[in-house]
Amino acid sequence: MGKIRILGDQIANKIAAGEVVERPASVVKELLENSMDAGSMSIRIDVEAGGRRLMRILDDGCGMLRDDALLAFERHATSKLSDARDLLSIATLGFRGEALPSIASVSRLALETRADGDSIGTRVEISGGRLIRCDDVPAPRGTSVEVADLFFNVPARKKFLRSEQTELAHIASLVTHYALARPEKAFVLNHGGSPLLDLTPVATLRERVYQVFGNRMLEDLIELEPAGRELDPASGEENPLAFRLRGFVSAPSVQKLNRNSIYLFVNGRLIRDRLLLHALSAAYYNLMPPACFPVALLFVDCDFEEVDVNVHPAKTEVRFRHSSFVHDFVRDTVRDALIAAKPAAAMPLPPRPPQPGEGLPYSEFSQRLETDGFVASVAAPESGSSAPGPGFNLRPQQAPPPRLDLERPAPRFDFDPAPVVRRAPDSHGFLPDGLYAAEASLASLADLRPLGQLHDSFIVAAGRDGLWIIDQHVAHERILFEQVLRQQSEGRSGSQRLLVPLVVRLSPSQQIEFARIAAEMERAGFECEPFGNRTLAIKAAPAGISPADAESLVFEILEVAEQELRQASSDDLRRSMAASIACRAAIKINTRLEPTKMDWLLHELAATSCPMSCPHGRPIALRYTMREILRSFHRI
Ligand SMILES: Nc1ncnc2c1ncn2[C@@H]1O[C@H](COP(=O)(O)OP(=O)(O)O)[C@@H](O)[C@H]1O
Ligand SMILES: [Mg+2]
To answer: Ligand 2 centre and the CA of 441: distance in Å?
Structure first.
């Protein structure tokens, strides 16, 4: 008995309509999803000429019977839905029943398949949507789909394809993403016969991240403790539904200039989603400058009814039923993980060329191309390069930029033809040294011994785990910021009277802004009184602010409120005000500190919840680990 049915019009019309085959990577995406839906444990993808000449996906999934193998090429033919209600809780990656017919209509396609328990397999050949032949053939269990000459009959579409390297980069990105989502499956990606990715099954996401990106990447990532949250039973839901979040996020010191290193998955499906992106940014609020982004691999899992995936033809967008609940859950979980880990920023180290088989170095990982909001992880050569072709195992010709500048001008690459990412636990079952290295945490700040100051601006301190440099201004800024916020929430802001009230003149728009935020300013420790038309008398300022600074602080607060915070919540306003106050009141650079003051500063910093960044997102402390010191002296 076949499994595939043609959907009735009523349900077919409910499916998000639109073309799915835009480029080779969209073909790979659909075929890869089919292989995963078929329960495959091992998937091999062969690509030639960036997918323009050929893409072949071979799986060991459930396969198809002869009738199904033919039916699969009809529009709206699927084994994954039967009635419209199924659309409300989709458990498979596919459901539209349109991928195979769409792909077959714009290529020369050959499918070979054998279902479990069937003695003979089937081969179907279709060219430009026309059935050429359907034969019985011997075939291993599973399915292989070969797509050649994409868009051979649609020259207008073919013209829009980009270079071989670019199309390959999109494909590699896609396979990489899905490989991260399914560590238990084996993935192989070959281009022109040489492997780009060869991933054996592993037990954990951590090991898969290591296989794909290598240790350098893992060192900068914080693993989220798998967290769950239930919808409030008082919300009227009969059964409170649980949302779960797991994955990795980067330390705030890793600052990307775009969102390309953020990978989002909902129930194992690769998606892009504004809501989750916003939740992630909110988690890094006051830990990272506003225009910067972290690296993140987030997996949200929930009941299938909680998320509508029938939004976009390529199935890359979703809609959550309880969106604000999901937003807050993700924001809080990521934030809590950052606060718990207190990751220390490493001192920039001299770059070291990657060793063979080491995987994608960080600089190359960050050199990515944007596609459909997703990103490619393969570096393409600059034009004019004599490189034979792209690959994952690239060697920078010149030093890659220092860590925090990773997105700056791309380094030139020459290509190493050696086969690439192949990592598995070694014969003892452990991954190589470093994977289990202790996390670099700022929790050890309290044990530091200050040695002195550099340029009267940076505290140099010795700790058990290495040498530290602390920026005295931003360290104090963080301490004061958290103190001001605490006092604000307890309604007891420190305020000090000015001997002589300061009289300041406001522009009309500043006057309007002042009226809007006057109550918040008072909570922060200001006492201001209107004094005639567009004039303000400042009688008291937050503690620690010198009279000379009070006036410019008022103007700064008004300006920020006007520029950035019109739309923002009162909570954001409060934080921004606290950041301005902390910045003015903090110890400046070029200030000599007594040893006791340095001690005090380090202790206070250790007691803050986020000692890693100042409220504007700059790093506070750099650590040169004992291991790096020993390595630099060739002692290990
Ligand atoms: N690799 C595969 N292994 C087993 N069955 C497959 C495979 N690819 C496609 N099929 C079958 O063909 C049907 C149609 O595939 P497709 O056009 O991608 O639609 P959808 O995935 O939305 O159902 C699927 O529902 C599935 O039953
Ligand atoms: Mg499909």
So the answer is: 44
